[in-house]
Amino acid sequence: MIDVQRARRETPGCEHVTHLNNAGSSLPPQPVLDAVIGHLQLEARAGGYEAHEQNETAIDRFYGAAAELVGASAGEIAFSSSATRAWDMAFYSFPFERGDRILTAVAEYISNFIAYIQVAERAGVEVIPVPSDEYGQVSVESLRRLVDERVKLIAITHVPTNGGLVNPAAEIGAVAREAGIPYLLDACQSVGQLPVDVEEIGCDVLSATGRKYLRGPRGTGFLYVRSSLLDRLEPPFLDMRAADWVEPDRYELRPDAIRFEEWEQAYAAKAGLATAIDYALAWGLDPIWKRVAALGENLRVRLGDIDGVTVRDLGEVRCGIVTFTVDGVEANELKKRLSRERINVTASPPSSTLLDSRARALPDLVRASVHYYNTGEELERLVEAVGNAAPG
Ligand SMILES: Cc1ncc(COP(=O)(O)O)c(C=O)c1O
User: Fold this and answer.
1) 223 and 266, same structural domain?
2) What is the Cα–Cα distance from 64 to 289, expressed in whole angstroms?
């Protein structure tokens, strides 16, 4: 059980807003603020390099904490400035050739798909979205049928940006393992919200962000790469952190996942992310998931009861992200109105998941995303405000 009152006491933002934009960026807890601000102050007092040396243990805790969070080992973890950059560093490491295929999801994230198109154009790779099943999630049956020797990567978004759907990541992993195909999971919106274990899921690469459900600082993310894949992936950009310059004409890549990092890093933010992960681990991902899923479902039912409101979430398993439309009220307009009442939501445009949006003829969606520190009263405030805006 989550002690919601304690969670709120430890979250300064709860006094100011009803924050239902946790899939955008969560309110950080006080320990995360302390870690970030404390390190910046140390940099100002001692000097940037000197502060790094003095605070190295807390900063490097990031690797152990992230590994514990996803069931990996510390050498399989790389720090990055975002989930997208983490994902890109891994994706662009795969040596695709003409005729290769990438299997992905219909509700795939915009930035991932832009990268697919680029690689398709450059290398002659075919990108195939696996059809969805009757729940709107990746059809594992269709995936199985599409697997053959041409498929060089299965790349799936766990929780899409535009809805509550949780794709069947472990079932997909079982197919990938059986076929011996590398599996890249975009876990940007699931890590911190639900238990994510790379062994249970069977993914070989995973990308995540700090600011969403982990409640870390903006400008942070991480990458997991399975140790058995590490020496087969040469990152697209290298620097003196990723490799050693051993001869005038030769470099040697680091053996661990740090080969995907860059030398210069926001150490205050990295210390903040380490603290955020430890903070999440202390609450426990099972209790967090239980509460987030229950709040999400509660909100879906309440919003669905309002005349003129249509809930748009797909999936057999649905998470804390709730998307909806209100007849006659444009999503950005509703977002503005709610903001005036100090309720934070966001609007999700069709371009964020173009294939899914076109297939379902979706307009801009209102996206309300709950976290464990949200309360029933906060959901009630949203439901009332949406009810006032709805035509019925
Ligand atoms: C599914 C998914 N993947 C990746 C990202 C990108 O994360 P970041 O902004 O940390 O690069 C997002 C952000 O909304 C997302 O929803």
Assistant:
1) yes
2) 22
